[in-house]
Design brief:
The structure holds three protein chains of three kinds. By secondary structure, chain A is of the alpha+beta class. Helices cover 33% and strands 16% of the residues of chain A. Chain B is an alpha+beta fold. The chains are: A alpha+beta, B alpha+beta, C alpha+beta.
């Protein structure tokens, strides 16, 4: 039994910068980010596509890095929590999460930020039920989602 | 969790895919969105040394309202209001698949060929090993219905019943060329339950196509599960048809999430065509369909309850068709 | 909505204080254990038992050891010293010794260059076993068995702990009662399901020290257990708690993998990381006990409660964990919020060959509260009383003592009842909504910090807080209290800033590190706000005294005439000679340099003198009265909780954002246990060790929550505060169950209440010819 297949070159756009790296076929995007590229903001919660802690954008779409082969991102654009965070300060969604107490343990938070930021980019004024539906792939065990939904509403209305 | 090593192929045409899968034979799996295959691979279920990824095949990714490529991402269909108007039942089923994050990767073809599911099968290697494995993977017996012949894992796709209810077809490509079959012919009611489809060797799903008559046909999809997201269907019931002033002009009902394959209940619905729909024949239809299904205890909800909900869902589906929206033509 | 307005004398406390680590969490910069890498780090793997109960005859690790990339393979014999969170029930080992006791028990540990190699090594370990009888049902274990799971089981049975208590004369009370009610509650096990899987890194260095980073709620108990099992003095072990992604009790025991990880580090001389897959988390469990309880309640014709007679059988799984405490709590936590003059309890916790049960949020209180509150609803109906009236008649008054000697100081339970009744519109809804819609009341009572620390040696406070401030004006706060997301760092910083009058950004709560953090016994039993809050206040007051003396010297006014204002100390009526914080600080430092201060908290003596009298004692208690409104689809049995009016007495809420967050999160977790979460077993085999099949409620299932914070100041709580982390869970379940009864006329005594059970209940009632609300 082989431990791993030989690394092959991989070119992608990562957080708006071209990246040339390499990985074996079986490398999962989440592992490439966390283990190989030290982008540890993306979290491993269940590793099987349920919890949404590993949410990243692929070509701008919020999806699961734990169910994506790294090599599937060849030639594509990947954005992680590090990519949506300004060099200093916070983006409006992040600010709203902080001010509204939408983080508790914080482990699900990067995933929620990725989902919510994509939602507001595509739908600047979502209804409450659109927000609820949009986050229905991210599990939070601490907040009961209440303050997360409030934070997204507040970010959408600019009412902070 | 991690994957065992495999060779990965990323061909760009259907012909290349077919050639590759033929060359690789049984030692390969086809990778669509990966949201079903990769979790199973992470749990070391039925690993193959070669994966042929479809994501670079341009033809599979394109879709129109008549013909939807198999690699169309569910989220793209979900966002398409024209699609929802054209096929409200299918759109509802698409919307109910897993979670928004999964739907961004998951594909139409992948959902049609989603691996059947069972408490004794969708488990990690050590978990399954501790029970001596099962008929569907690495073992020789079924733990749900104890015997060694037939697997009872549950068909858990949402799209198949919704597509079947509007007479959609699937276009296949294989070494002998292309062919088109009704959606339900993908599945094998007479099989051993282990293999989830009856594609010919090295055949892939290229597209789903809709007959002109199905465009705008009133249709609905109801999904039973504990949570309104995340979960696979414990019952997915699709209905489509035209009921004009109480009289049934056309009708089809199909269900998944119950047995090893999705089913359509034409023997029950066909006699209703031309009839006026009333409480008596509605209830009789719901009873008949309910009596004909045999779920087993390998999902979260108890099989007797799932069966009972078939009756409720059929009644509700017929009421909704009779009462018009949602699913107004046009 | 609240009637207890924040006092204007506070600048921060009583307001909505965003979590201090929020900016790190929303950017992915908060550092959790698995985010840390050490140079030369190896990865650990744990071989788990596929057998529910088996004697380990031999374990051959020779071929595993010889694989390339494998650095160590350990079996149980190397560190056989038993440990456990309670000193009286040390029955766990880091790696199984002699026997495997459940499917998932750790029987070997491997360190290798990567996890894949570790897995290959584990596959190469040959284990020979003799299978032993498998015990799945705790009822079986009540009688002597052929092969007790532990030798310490009671008289050849699998009973780990039996509690028998009797206060007053229960039989006489029942003989005289005009109304009695009895229910048998059956509860599936549930688990914490925090989002961060456990992870530990251990590193042994040539200076003879061992450093352990771990996702733990109680760094101090881990510190002790590491020392005991590994035989290394505590002062040569350093425990660091990075950010923790939720715990809810599941990271409060010292856990075998943490010790095994340290053992691998000692063995290899290299840093070793063990991180769990989700299945490992489920198999480690320590969640709420599967429980069967029998509750009998006696009352007079006006609804005055005269006696409780309670029995409970708890499925403990393979180890003791917190189980002795759980066994007590399942009785004694029934003793509020009502006055009950006679009380009898028999509780038994039984070992089974399943993943161990332990402490989970609202530990020991949830299941018994459910049965009692549902029984009270039945009692109210049989007497013909409104459920609110029944509760009001029996509410424990402030400054009272329960029959089992629990000291009740503050209680705003009556205010909770008033608030939830009025806000919910109860009078217009109860028994008046159409069939399928209902409203119900459930009440809560929970400890605000266990009075008893788990360890008594040496004698020391339950919490100590250190402050250090140097010439830069930044205040470093050290304490081993463990923020696991509940906001204790924020509260700690806010209390210090409040007392000193400084801006919050001057205060930095330093990451828990046993080398510098004074001992606090961690985040469990809802103790942190109360105990750490008091310690922090005392430390800050000591520092303030020093600063005020310096300010007095500078401005010439005596200390008792100085007021604390924002960033300055101001003589009464002479603001123009106010001394800034920085000037006061620099003056105070002239001779001593950096200032330090310390504060500590020990709870006062309390409780009776009988056996087990300490169980349930706490320096304060929280109270709750929740009303839930539900809508049921009578055909499918699906139901939706529309609103919960959550009236809660946490004394003075110090951070409203956090208190609301705890209430909302508790309601979500309570609804999970009620609606669908279950550790589903076939015999001893866990069938659903995944977040897909373990049904944590989705956002769409969450009700609107109205937090009604009506608590009045507690006399001993910091600034009047009590707990809000666990108590908010317990009222949720019975409130919804009683609302379901109001909706469809069906009582549910078995959790979870899944739709199939709802349909069956409705059908049963119809079969019996007992229509409800005309349906």
């Amino acid at each position: 039994m082989r431990s791993m297949s030989p690394p092959r070159p991989l070119r992608l756009t990562l957080n708006d910068r071209p990246v040339e790296t390499s990985c074996p076929n079986e490398r999962i995007l989440l592992d490439l980010l966390r283990e190989d590229l030290n982008l540890t903001g993306t979290k491993r919660g269940c590793d099987l596509g349920t919890c949404g802690c590993c949410t990243v954008w692929i070509d701008g779409r919020a999806t699961l890095s734990c169910l994506t082969l790294a090599r599937s991102t060849e030639g594509h654009s990947v954005t992680t929590i590090e990519g949506v965070s300004p060099a200093t300060g916070l983006n409006p969604v992040q600010k709203a999460f902080v001010e509204r107490g939408a983080t508790q343990c914080g482990f699900c938070t990067p995933g929620f930020i990725m989902t919510a930021t994509a939602l507001l980019r595509d739908h600047p004024h979502p209804s409450r039920s659109e927000i609820t539906e949009a986050i229905a792939g991210n599990l939070c065990r601490c907040t009961g989602y209440t303050k997360i939904i409030e934070a997204i509403e507040s970010a959408a209305s600019g009412d902070r | 969790m991690h994957l065992d090593p495999f060779e990965l192929y990323r061909p760009s045409t259907v012909e290349e895919v077919v050639r590759l899968t033929r060359d690789l034979g049984a030692a390969c799996d086809v990778l669509a969105g990966g949201t079903d295959l990769l979790p199973n691979y992470k749990m070391h279920i039925n690993l193959k040394p070669n994966l042929v990824a479809l994501e670079e095949v341009e033809e599979l990714r394109s879709y129109t309202l008549e013909r939807v490529g198999s690699m169309t991402r569910l989220a793209d269909l979900d966002r398409d209001t024209d699609f929802a108007r054209a096929y409200p039942g299918v759109a509802a089923a698409v919307h109910e698949v897993a979670t928004p994050l999964v739907r961004e990767r998951a594909t139409v073809g992948g959902n049609l060929l989603v691996e059947t599911r069972c408490f004794f099968f969708n488990q990690t290697f050590p978990w399954r090993q501790s029970l001596g494995f099962c008929l569907k993977a690495d073992g020789d017996r079924c733990h749900v219905v104890p015997q060694k012949e037939r697997c009872y894992a549950t068909f858990s796709g949402d799209l198949a019943p919704a597509l079947a209810a509007v007479d959609a077809s699937v276009e296949l490509a294989g070494p002998d060329g292309r062919r088109t079959i009704p959606v339900l012919d993908l599945y094998d009611p007479g099989g051993d339950g282990i293999r989830r489809h009856r594609l010919r060797p090295n055949e892939i799903v290229v597209a789903v196509s809709f007959p002109a008559a199905s465009r705008g046909l009133p249709a609905n999809y109801q999904k039973l599960r504990i949570r309104p997201t995340f979960d696979f269907p414990e019952l997915g019931l699709a209905a489509a048809g035209l009921v004009e002033s109480g009289t049934v002009r056309s009708l089809a009902i199909a269900a998944g999430g119950l047995e090893t394959y999705p089913r359509r209940f034409d023997e029950v619905t066909r006699p209703l065509v031309g009839e006026r729909l009333n409480e008596t024949n509605r209830n009789a239809a719901s009873e008949a369909i309910m009596r004909s299904v045999r779920p087993v205890h390998n999902t979260f909800l108890a099989p007797d309850y799932r069966r009972r909900m078939v009756g409720v869902y059929v009644r509700r589906a017929l009421d909704r068709l009779a009462n018009g929206p949602p699913g107004v033509p046009g | 909505m609240s009637t207890a307005d924040a006092s204007p004398k506070f600048r921060l406390l009583g307001g909505r204080i965003p979590y201090v680590e929020g900016p790190l969490k929303v950017t992915g910069r908060a550092e959790y254990t698995d985010d840390i890498k050490r140079p030369g780090m190896l990865y650990g793997g744990l071989l788990r038992s596929p057998w529910p109960h088996a004697r380990l005859v031999s374990i051959d690790v020779s071929s595993a050891r010889s694989l390339p990339g494998v650095y160590a393979v350990l079996t149980g014999e190397k560190y056989p010293t038993p440990f456990g969170v309670l000193p009286i029930t040390h029955d766990e080992t880091a790696i199984a010794v002699g026997k495997a006791r459940y499917i998932g028990d750790i029987i070997a540990a491997v360190a290798a260059t990567d996890e894949r190699t570790a897995e290959l090594a584990m596959a190469a370990i040959r284990v020979e076993v003799e299978p032993l009888p498998e015990y799945a049902d705790p009822q079986t274990g009540l009688a002597p068995v052929t092969e007790p799971i532990h030798a310490r089981g009671l008289a050849g049975t699998n009973i780990q702990k039996e509690v028998v208590q009797h206060f007053g004369d229960v039989d006489a009370a029942f003989a005289q009662a005009s109304h009695t009610v009895r229910v048998r509650g059956t509860f599936a096990g549930v688990t914490h399901a925090f989002t961060e899987p456990m992870a530990t890194i251990a590193e042994s260095t040539p200076d003879g020290r061992l450093t352990v980073w771990s996702a733990t709620q109680v760094p101090h108990y881990l510190h002790r257990a590491l020392s005991e099992v590994l035989g290394i003095p505590m002062h040569r072990i350093r425990v660091i708690k990075p950010e923790v992604g939720g715990g809810f009790g599941g990271k409060s025991d010292p856990l075998p993998h943490e010790i095994a990880c340290a053992a691998l580090a000692l063995e290899t001389g290299r840093p070793v990381k063990i991180r769990f897959d989700r299945e490992d988390v489920f198999l480690t469990n320590h969640g709420r006990h599967p429980t069967q309880n029998d509750v009998r309640i006696a009352a007079d014709s006006e609804g005055h409660l005269s006696a409780y007679d309670i029995q409970a059988v708890l499925d403990g799984g393979a180890w003791s964990s917190f189980g002795t405490v759980t066994t007590y709590y399942n009785g004694v936590l029934a003793m509020g919020p009502y006055r009950v003059p006679n009380f009898r309890y028999r509780g038994r916790r039984v070992y089974t060959n399943k993943p161990p049960s332990g402490a989970m949020r609202a530990h020991g209180g949830t299941n018994i509260r459910y049965s009692v509150e549902v029984a009270l609803d039945e009692l109210a109906e049989s007497i013909g009383l409104d459920p609110f009236v029944l509760r009001e008649r029996n509410a424990l008054p402030p400054n009272s003592t329960t029959v089992n000697q629990l000291r009740i100081t503050s209680t705003s339970f009556r205010q909770c009842l008033d608030a939830s009744r009025v806000r919910s519109g109860w009078a217009d809804k109860f028994r008046r909504l159409p069939f399928g819609e209902g409203i119900g009341l459930g009440c809560g009572f929970y400890i605000s910090g266990s009075n008893s620390p788990i360890h008594f040696t040496p004698k020391m406070p339950q919490c100590t807080v250190h402050l250090k401030v140097d010439m830069d004006g930044g205040i470093a706060v050290h304490s081993m209290q463990a923020d696991i997301g509940q906001g204790s760092n924020t509260l700690l910083a806010a209390i210090v800033a409040e007392v000193l009058g400084v801006d919050l950004d001057r205060v930095h709560v330093v990451r828990v590190d046993s080398d510098i953090s004074p001992v606090d016994i961690g985040s469990y039993s809802s103790r942190v706000t109360f105990m750490m809050g008091n310690a922090a206040r005392r430390a800050a007051e000591e520092l303030l005294a020093t600063l005020l003396r310096a300010a007095s010297e500078l401005c010439g006014y005596p200390v008792d005439q100085l007021a604390v204002e924002r960033e300055r100390y101001v003589p009464r009526h002479r603001p123009e000679v106010a001394v800034s914080f920085m000037d006061a600080l620099h003056k105070a430092m002239e001779k001593v340099g950096a200032l330090t201060a310390t504060g500590a908290y020990s709870s006062p003596p309390m409780g009776g003198t009988f056996k087990g009298a300490r169980a349930g004692t706490a320096p304060a208690y929280s109270f709750a009265a929740y009303v839930a409104q539900v809508r049921v689809d009578a055909e499918t049995g699906e139901y939706h909780v529309g609103t919960i009016w959550a009236a809660f007495d946490c004394g003075r809420p110090l951070n409203r954002l956090a208190v609301e967050g705890q209430i909302e999160g508790s309601i979500h977790m309570g609804l999970g246990q009620l609606m669908g979460e279950t550790m589903s077993y076939r015999s001893t085999r866990l069938m659903n060790p995944s977040l897909l099949e373990y049904k944590i409620p989705a956002p769409q299932q969450m009700p609107r929550v109205e937090c009604l914070l009506v608590g009045q100041d507690d006399p001993e709580g910091p600034f009047g505060a009590k707990e809000a982390g666990e108590g908010p869970l317990v009222a949720t379940l019975p409130a919804v169950a009683n609302a379901l009864y109001d909706a469809i006329g069906v009582r549910f005594h078995e959790l979870p209440i899944t739709p199939d059970r709802v349909v069956r209940g409705i059908e049963q009632r119809r079969k019996e010819g007992r229509p409800w609300k005309g349906a």
